[in-house]
Structures are given as C-alpha cells and as structure tokens.
Amino acid sequence: MSQPTGACPHAWRHQQQHRGRMWATSRAFRRQLVLLRSLLPSPPTPPPYSFPSVAGRFFAPSCSSPSSTPSGSIRASHAMAGSAVYEADAEAVVRRITPPLDRSRHKGQAGKIAVIGGCREYTGAPYFAAISALKVGADLSHVFCTKDAATVIKSYSPELIVHPILEESYSVRDDERASVSSKILTEVAKWLERFDCIVVGPGLGRDSFLLDCVSNIMKHARQANIPTVVDGDGLFLITNNLGLVEGNPFAILTPNVYEYKRLVQKVLNCDVNEETAAEQLTLLCQKIGGVTIMRKGKADVISDGKTVTQVSTFGSPRRCGGQGDILSGSVAVFTSWARHFIMSNEEPKEKSFVLMQCRVNPMTLGCIAGSLLLRKAASLAFEKSKRSTVTTDIIEFLGKSLEDICPAEH
C-alpha cells in the first residue's frame, strides 16, 4: 500500500505495523496456519514477502496491490467489513488433490459422478456437466434424465451412461404420481451410493412433478452423505425449499449473479450488498447451515461459513452459455478427489487432527480447483477461437489445462 499524500511517514509506518500485528494474531489467521501445516508436509522456507508460515500454500489473505508480490504468489488485503478474503493458491490445491495415474488403479477409483438433470427442453446442460467430469479425469459419468432427453444426450457421446428414469407432469396421470415418484426414487437409489458426488440441476427444468422427484433424490443422497453440487434449476428448487440443503455440510451451491440475488433475498431478507460482500456470503452460509457456496463472478468467491476464499485468475471475456455446467461437473470431480485425499492421509495422528479439529473442507478445495481449471480452459479456448468460442471449445481444453498444472505421471 502506498503512503497517502501529505501523511506523516512515521505515523503511517506505525499504523501499518500495528495493523499487521493485529492480523497476524487473529484467530482466523492462526486457524489457517494450523489447518495448512497439517495438510502440507515439509514446507520450504518462506520468501521475504510472505508470512512466516505455510498458510499461503492453499489460502492467504488477498492483496490490494498486485505488483507487491510475484505472479501466482500470495496476495494480501482485508475484506470488506473486517472479514478476510483469502486468495487461493489454486494451482497448489489442484496439484495436491489430483490423484496420480498408476497401473495399480482400477476403473472407478478416479471418481464416479452422476448428473441429475435433462428434460425435453434442455439436453445440452447435463451433457456439458457430465462430459466435463470425464474430461477432468473421472472414470465414470452418469446422467439421470427424462425419457425424452435420454436419446438426445446419448447421441452426443457414447462415453456417458444415460438413465431415462425421470418423468415430467405431462407424462404422468394425477392418480399415478405417488407410485411413479416412488418407482423413480427406487431406481435411482440402486445407483446412488456408488457415486462419489452428484450434480443436481443442469437442464432440470421447472416442471413441478420432476422437481418433487428430484427433491426425494436429494434427500436420499443426503442420508447417504453423498456430496451434492447444486447448480442451474437445482438452485431454483432449493431456494424454494431450503430444507433440502439446510445443515448439510456436503452441499455445494454454485449460483450466478441472479441466482445469488434470489438466494440472499430468500434467506437474509435483504438485497446483495457489495460493500460487505464477504461478510454477507459468510452469513448466508451460516444461515443455511454449513453449506459451501461459490458465488460466481469476475472472481469466484467461496465460503463454508467459516472462511472466505476467492479465485481471481482471469479466464475469458467470452460469456457463452454452458460454462456453469462445465464448472459444476469439474467441481464434482475435484470434490471427490479432495475427500479421498483427506481421508487417505497416511499419518493417523495427522488425519485425526485434520478431520476432527481443523476440519479441512474438501468442498472448498473442490470449488477452488474447479474454478481455476475452468478459467484456464476458457482462456486457452478464447486464445484460439476468440469471439466464436463456445462451450464445447472450452471442454476440449480441460485436459490440457490440467496437464499444464499437474502433469500425468507415466
């Protein structure tokens, strides 16, 4: 931060040192230190511009002066209304949680993802989410959709496993609704516990009967502790029925600017306030009850009600539809990888400390990694196609973007 014009240099330096000491002794800062010391073994000696810790390896407070630190390093500043927003070292997160490729692995160990969505009007969104999961590195990707959508989605790619199980109101008589809904849940439940993460909402539509059926599926997934990414029309569903995600630490909401506005108005009974954006996001997560929310925008801002993290890597100025679907599929894969990474920690004491005391949130890590990968893929796609960039162009660069960050081991 530059010295204000006309300010006393000694008083200004004293003020900055005082602020630094206050932040360095804050509970939030100490919590980040402990959390990341547990997760990252043998950190290197910190460079002179960073705090004397490993806190910045995954998160660090973001800085108002980008020129004050090297590219890709930790940037530090204070968030609005005293809440700290941490700029994630997203590449470090991706490298840490992405599983290595080796010959001992079998099909399914790199992730099994399911997308719940797709109706006769919307077939592209569930395809984008499901194929993105495969392109990131999941072994299997399923789509549960209506019968009208199934053939269309199957024709997009033979790589997807498509289940024509869901039904809309027009195809079900009123006196059959209860039995058909029960049958749908039974069919989906046969598969549900096999999945590492599900995505609810891409191409779902707003048919009342279909939404009721998906509500039952979400309740079942919650009982089984299956991480659930909620996007698109899934956000419309939960905004009108918050009980589906209230108190669920395995739920991830990924609203865009309009979806976020509706969510804030519903839960907090007020409008979005950009001056206290970080504090408001934290409060929103807390009010819903421990969910993780990724507020999409110029920077993707992520909170689980305890910390606020952002990914501000520039992606693409091209805002074609479907990028949110890529993000939801990517977040699902990285979330499953992050959970496995934390659960498979080889040190029993470290594992217990991380999981039970520090509560490293794999949902947050999944959001960080998914956000970065989409942004890098969008940047590469735009570099090639400029104004004609569409979602399928971005999907084709997911693999290269991940390889650039975390090369596959042969």
Describe the structure.
- This protein is an alpha/beta fold.
- The chain contains 15 helices and eleven strands.
- An eleven-stranded mixed sheet has the order 1-2-11-10-9-8-7-6-3-4-5, with helices on both faces.
- α7 links the parallel β6 and β7.
- α2 runs antiparallel to α12 and α11 runs antiparallel to α13.
- The relative contact order is 0.12.
- About 15% of the residues have low confidence.
- One of its GO terms (molecular function) is ATP binding.
- It catalyses: (6S)-NADPHX + ATP = ADP + phosphate + NADPH + H(+); (6S)-NADHX + ATP = ADP + phosphate + NADH + H(+).
- InterPro entries: CARKD, Ribokinase-like.
- Keywords: ATP-binding, Lyase, NAD, NADP, Nucleotide-binding, Phosphoprotein.
Count of individual beta strands: 11
Major sheet: arrangement of strands: 1-2-11-10-9-8-7-6-3-4-5
The major beta sheet can be summarized as: 11 strands, mixed
Based on helices, strands and strand pairing, what is the structural class?
Answer: alpha/beta
Span between termini: 46 Å
Strand content: 5-15%
Radius of gyration: 22 Å
Helix content: 40-55%
Order of helices and strands: HHEEHEHEHEHEHEHEHHEEEHHHHH
**Oligomeric state of shown chains:** single chain
Low-pLDDT residue intervals, each spanning 5 or more residues:
21-25, 33-57, 62-82, 348-358
Q: How many helices does DSSP assign? A: 15
Query: What is the typical, i.e. mean, pLDDT?
Result: 84
Q: Tell me, what's the shape?
A: globular
SSE topology:
Elements: H1 9-24, H2 27-39, E1 59-61, E2 85-88, H3 90-97, E3 112-116, H4 124-136, E4 140-146, H5 147-156, E5 161-166, H6 177-192, E6 197-200, H7 208-223, E7 228-230, H8 233-239, E8 251-253, H9 257-267, H10 277-288, E9 292-295, E10 300-303, E11 308-311, H11 323-343, H12 348-358, H13 362-385, H14 391-395, H15 398-405
Parallel strand pairs: 2-11, 3-4, 3-6, 4-5, 6-7, 7-8, 8-9
Antiparallel strand pairs: 1-2, 9-10, 10-11
Helix pairs in contact: 2-12, 3-13, 4-11, 6-7, 11-13, 13-15
Pfam families: Carb_kinase
Domain YjeF C-terminal: 90-405
Catalytic activity: (6S)-NADPHX + ATP = ADP + phosphate + NADPH + H(+); (6S)-NADHX + ATP = ADP + phosphate + NADH + H(+)
